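Handout, page 2. Input:
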Amino acid sequence: MTLYFITGNKGKFSEAKMIFPYVQQLDLELEEIQSLDAKVIAEHKLRQALSKHEGEFFIEDTSLYLECLNGFPGPLIKWFLETLGAEGIYNLVDKYENNKVVVKSLVGYARKKNKEVSITFFEAADKGEIVSPRGDLDFGWGPIFQPLGERITYGEMSREYKMKTSMRGKALQLLKEHLEYGHQ
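Output:
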């Protein structure tokens, strides 16, 4: 059976292809409900996808939890980026004395077998700081995120290095292990 990555984000898709060379991109129009719980958002998307298309699917949603805003915007980061952009987020955080952040990647995997729907989640997180934008090798908020223990932002990392160390790379690796060893 074909494995599909449901995304319209070319950057995310190219990163997923590094771990799943055989994956196919599927850009479905899915309603994105609003919730502070990333799993609720992901499950809603996966159930919609299963009702529109046959196959095995995964999605990846990223959340960004700013300590200075008590964890906001979390899974609503897409809307922050659309309205403020990465530099605007940096400017907002810079007004506070606390630039600490946790970024999380939630991968949701769904399949239907004998009319039974199975949804499994894989999550990984990175801690770091919001810094002045640096680098153009990443998309979204990557140029303003500097992981703990690093001297460079995601925007300055090669895609290969980022995928070995980032929360998205770790979460996709968990999915890969599940597919190889966990379900049949």
